[in-house]
């Protein structure tokens, strides 16, 4: 017993020690070692009690303190996080010990209390961590000081102690920086300049990881061929250039950045993309050229990029998908964005061989035709396809049937007028479809046959009537919302009672026309699993036939999943205001139901038949189960008797043998 106790104590203290070391390593400003880390250790050793109350008070103190020095605030946040995590570990260790001592007598209530305490502690840790992250971003920017290498720039430290961020704004030219050993995580050069001369960064002796060059000059931005010359600049991993629409080519100096993995170029007049990525920039993973005049891409421009995963070319002048240029990277490309271009069609085998493509964005292109064999390779793992704001007149079923792993499809803002049958039949992974803002006039009753998604919204359509037979037994569709479709005027159901699915189904209507509720909805609304949700601002045509079966539905069969408390009948022609729900000519449909006389016997045939069918089905099932139960008992009894007889026969045989 003593050995077990010693092991538990050792494990707890060892876990606490490792947690302290990890926190010191992660939250120390200068990593492991250094002057600041030693101060951190001294202050940590002075702390004798790590309780939850102390950590909470420390957190409150940090939040209430004004920001004086970014480093001081950062250290206070680190101490608060350390003390809070240690108090959490201590409390969890106590709970663990108590739980194992009283494991035989612990109740569910005690376990819930322990779980609640752990959740509260984790929430407090997350709060302090988020505050420290926000403080590291905001307080640092608020306490920038002049950089030691240039008076025109501001840094997060006046002596470049540790990792440093640099901001140089309102520049008229790129300054020539003096010699320094600063380790720069990011540098922003912003102003009204038109050139980047050579050897401006030659005096940097450490590294620069990220650089952003942004100009507002009306003159073309020109880069010297040796602008990025130097050992330090070779370490740049991310380069962003905002040229205000006045740069004609990608700087040749980019070829020298052998560790570059992200290149972002925005606002240029580049018309052609040539082979500027030599063998020295083979590490490039992401390329984004936006708001430019790009029309042509050479076929070998990406031939040396072995790890290329993301290509974004939005808001350019491309008239077709650069199929030949993408061939060298089709095995590695994961994201392709060609939105806001001038592409008119997607030809055959355009995306053949793209074995890792996950996201494809072709939105805001005048695409009217997509070849059925555009995705000829059935193994393409495309998850997201955006075809919104195009000129498609129908859903490209022949193309989509090959995308068996597709999960998100957006075909909104097109010219789709009809949703044909079994459009989504073979797309077994699809979970979301956006069909909004299409002039849809008809929806086939089997449009969602075999669909795997459970909800769909049709907004801003031109639907005039809707057949609720779309909620068939062979579809996963559970909810449909139709909004902002004032042309919708009639609801009816074409399937019989025997085909109606018993799973919950919801039809939501908002901002539609004056609805005519067909008599065929009577049996559908009797099912407790179907809900008709009509918005209070919409109206219903309250003719005599409709009011009769609605009255029978409300009075004779309760409950019914339709709310008539806030639905109005259409206003009479004598009114002056047809849109005001409070008008005297607009009456609640519930009032009309109360004023309608009906005999429940006239509407008992269908319901009695349906109830009788359900009762007979239920009784048949119960009879079958009872028969199987008794049959099992009989078989079990026969088996036991046969086993008993065999045992008796064996005993009799042994007795006879002994007698002989």
TrEMBL record:
<keyword id="KW-0677">Repeat</keyword>
<dbReference type="Pfam" id="PF13855">
    <property type="entry name" value="LRR_8"/>
</dbReference>
<dbReference type="InterPro" id="IPR003591">
    <property type="entry name" value="Leu-rich_rpt_typical-subtyp"/>
</dbReference>
<dbReference type="InterPro" id="IPR032675">
    <property type="entry name" value="LRR_dom_sf"/>
</dbReference>
<protein>
    <submittedName>
        <fullName>Leucine-rich repeat-containing G-protein coupled receptor 6</fullName>
    </submittedName>
</protein>
<keyword id="KW-0675">Receptor</keyword>
<dbReference type="InterPro" id="IPR001611">
    <property type="entry name" value="Leu-rich_rpt"/>
</dbReference>
<keyword id="KW-0433">Leucine-rich repeat</keyword>
């Amino acid at each position: 017993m003593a050995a077990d106790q010693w092991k538990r104590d050792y494990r707890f203290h060892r876990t606490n020690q490792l947690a302290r070391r990890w926190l010191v390593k992660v939250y120390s400003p200068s990593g492991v070692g250094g002057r600041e880390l030693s101060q951190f250790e001294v202050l940590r050793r002075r702390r004798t009690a790590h309780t939850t109350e102390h950590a909470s008070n420390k957190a409150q103190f940090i939040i209430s303190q004004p920001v004086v020095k970014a480093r001081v605030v950062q250290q206070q946040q680190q101490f608060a996080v350390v003390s809070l995590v240690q108090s959490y570990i201590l409390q969890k260790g106590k709970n663990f010990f108590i739980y194992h001592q009283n494991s035989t007598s612990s109740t569910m209530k005690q376990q819930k209390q322990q779980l609640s305490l752990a959740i509260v502690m984790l929430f407090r840790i997350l709060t302090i961590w988020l505050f420290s992250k926000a403080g590291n971003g905001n307080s640092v920017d608020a306490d920038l000081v002049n950089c030691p290498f240039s008076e025109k720039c501001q840094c997060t430290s006046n002596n470049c102690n540790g990792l440093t961020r640099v901001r140089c704004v309102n520049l008229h030219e790129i300054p020539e920086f003096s010699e320094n050993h600063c380790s720069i995580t990011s540098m922003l050069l912003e102003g009204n300049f038109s050139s980047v001369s050579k050897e401006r960064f030659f005096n940097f002796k450490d590294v620069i990881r990220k650089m952003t060059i942004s100009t507002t000059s009306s003159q073309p931005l020109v880069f010297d061929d040796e602008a990025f010359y130097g050992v330090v600049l070779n370490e740049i991993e991310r380069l962003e250039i905002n040229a205000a629409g006045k740069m004609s080519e990608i700087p040749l100096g980019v070829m020298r950045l052998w560790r570059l993995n992200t290149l972002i170029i925005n606002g240029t007049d580049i018309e052609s993309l040539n082979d500027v990525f030599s063998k020295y920039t083979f590490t490039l993973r992401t390329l984004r050229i936006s708001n430019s005049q790009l029309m042509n891409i050479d076929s070998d421009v990406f031939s040396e990029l072995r790890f290329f995963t993301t290509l974004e070319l939005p808001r350019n002048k491309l008239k077709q998908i650069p199929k030949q240029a993408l061939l060298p990277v089709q095995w590695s490309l994961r994201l392709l964005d060609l939105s806001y271009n001038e592409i008119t069609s997607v030809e055959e085998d355009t995306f053949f061989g793209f074995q890792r493509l996950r996201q494809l964005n072709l939105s805001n292109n005048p695409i009217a035709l997509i070849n059925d064999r555009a995705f000829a390779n059935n193994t393409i793992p495309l998850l997201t396809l955006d075809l919104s704001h195009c000129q498609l007149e129908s859903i490209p079923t022949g193309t989509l049937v090959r995308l068996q792993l597709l999960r998100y499809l957006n075909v909104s803002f097109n010219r789709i007028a009809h949703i044909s049958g079994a459009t989504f039949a073979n797309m077994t992974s699809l979970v979301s479809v956006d069909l909004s803002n299409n002039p849809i006039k008809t929806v086939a009753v089997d449009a969602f046959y075999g669909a795997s998604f459970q909800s769909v919204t049709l907004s801003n359509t031109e639907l005039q009537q809707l057949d609720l037979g779309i909620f068939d037994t062979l579809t996963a569709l559970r909810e449909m919302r139709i909004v902002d479709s004032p042309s919708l005027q009639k609801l009816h159901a074409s399937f019989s009672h025997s085909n109606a699915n018993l799973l919950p189904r919801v039809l939501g209507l908002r901002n539609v026309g004056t609805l005519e509720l067909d008599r065929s909805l009577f049996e559908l609304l009797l099912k407790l699993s179907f809900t008709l949700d009509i918005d209070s601002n919409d109206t219903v045509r309250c003719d005599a036939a409709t009011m009769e079966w609605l009255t029978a539905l409300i009075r004779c069969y309760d409950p019914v999943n339709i709310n008539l408390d806030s639905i109005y009948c259409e206003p009479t022609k004598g009114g002056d205001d047809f849109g005001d729900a409070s008008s005297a000519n607009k009456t609640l449909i519930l009032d009309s139901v109360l004023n309608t006389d009906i005999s429940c016997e006239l509407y008992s045939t269908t319901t009695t038949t349906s109830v009788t069918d359900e009762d007979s089905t239920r009784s048949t099932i119960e009879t079958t189960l009872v028969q199987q139960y008794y049959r099992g008992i009989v078989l079990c009894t026969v088996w036991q008797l046969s086993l008993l007889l065999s045992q008796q026969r064996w005993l009799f045989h042994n007795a006879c043998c002994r007698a002989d």
